[in-house]
Write a structure and sequence with these properties.
Length: 152
Amino acid sequence: MRPDNLSKDEQHFKEKLKICIVSAPYYKDVTDNLIRGALNVLKKIKADTEIVEVSGALEIPTAIRLMENEFDGFIAVGCVIRGDTTHYEIVSTESSRGLTNLGLEKICIGNAILTVENRLQAEERADPKIFDKGGEACKALLSVIKIKGRGH
């Protein structure tokens, strides 16, 4: 489902949500588009939003843990592009594992850390007019917040 097609139920929460976007802007043009997609959705529900930057995707789970009591939910934003070394596997696996572990501890997170083969894939997936993975991660976050019972 496209993020721009929010149902009335998805647009309504009992209280205003406070959402933090935690971004690792190594590929700034890509992460800016992911953030733009997420903000498009967050504006529709009138959420309070803060953007926090960290140095890399591996630091995103730690930053979320440190701020867990300040926000209703988080959107992890970053981009890992495969290169010639094993760094890609480590960063993509461990950042995902960190976010999953936090989710299992009842921290609401939408994952918009792209793990791709090349820059073109990253640009297409981040673009709000093409794949809009930032908007999709935001919708995933909102569904988890509803399940947790903080909204609606």
